[in-house]
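[Help] Beginner question about ligand-bound structures

Sorry if this is basic. My supervisor gave me a protein sequence and a SMILES string for S-adenosylmethionine and asked me to "get the holo structure". I don't really know what that means in practice or what format the answer should be in. Inputs are pasted below exactly as I got them.
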Amino acid sequence: MNDANYGHPRLAAIYDPLDPDRSDLDAYVAMAEEFGARSVLDVGCGTGVLALLLAARGLTVTGIDPARASVDVARGKPGAERVRWLDGDAGDLPPMRVDLVTMTGNAAQAIVDPHDWHTTLRGAYAALSPGGRFVFETRDPARRVWDDWAGWSRATTRRVTDLPGVGRVETWAELTGVSLPFVSFRGVHVFADGEVLVSESTLRFRERAEVERDLREHGLVVDEVREAPDRPGHELVFVARRP
Ligand SMILES: C[S@@+](CC[C@H](N)C(=O)[O-])C[C@H]1O[C@@H](n2cnc3c(N)ncnc32)[C@H](O)[C@@H]1O
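Answer (accepted):
No worries, everyone starts somewhere. Holo just means with the ligand present. The predicted complex, written as C-alpha cells, is below.
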C-alpha cells in the first residue's frame, strides 16, 4: 500500500519536523549496544533517523524503505554519506550479513499484505549473521488504541505548525475504518500556499502469538517480547534471533 505520508515528497519532507520527539529510538540504540552490534540493517528506515544515529556511533548501517521520497529526505541529511541507502523492501536486499536488523516506528504495522510481511521476515533472516538479532515493535492489539482514535476529528486533532523553510502547515486526522486486524485513518495537511494533501493509511494489528509463529516459521527464535520503555503497555517489542 502506498501511503502518501512517506511516498509524497512534500509530506515526507515534513515527517520529522511534525514529529521531532524520537525518544522512541533510544531503546533501539540501547539494544544495538546491548547486543554488541557492529553492523545494522534498518528495514522501513523512512527518513533515516535511526540509521543516522547508529552510523554516528560508528556502526556500519544500511537503511531500506520502499518510499523513495522518504529515503531521499534521509539522503539529504548531514552524515547521510555514512549510511548505505536502498530503495525497496526486504525482498530487494543484496546479500549481506549484519549483527542486527531493526524495524522501528511501528513500520511492521505498515506492512499489511501477508506476502509483503513474509518477504520482510525472510529478508531479515537472510540478512542476519548466525546469532544476530531482529528487533521490531508493533502496537499490542490488546490495548485497543483504535478506541482512543475513534475520538479523532478536525476539532480534536487540529494543529497548526510553523515549519522553518516550509511555512505554516495545518494538519488533522480522522479514523476512517476499523475492520480488524485493519485500522485505517486519514491525515489532512493544508500548506500555506493552499495545497491540500490527504494521506490514507492502513495499519495491521498482529497478535503476539501470530507474530511469534510467523518468526518461527522463518527460522527465527523469539528470545523475548519487551515493552517499549517510552510507551509502557502499548507496544510489543520482539527480540528474535537467527540461531
Ligand atoms: C511510521 S514509518 C516509520 C519509519 C521509520 N522506521 C521511523 O522510525 O521513523 C513506517 C515506514 O514503513 C515503510 N514501509 C511500508 N511498507 C513497507 C515494506 N513492505 N517494507 C519496508 N518498509 C515498509 C513506510 O514506507 C514508512 O517509511
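A couple of things worth pointing out: The chain has a mean pLDDT of 97. The pocket of S-adenosylmethionine is lined by residues 6, 43-46, 49, 65-67, 70, 89, 104-107, 110-111, 116, 120 (CB under 6 Å). Feel free to follow up in the thread.
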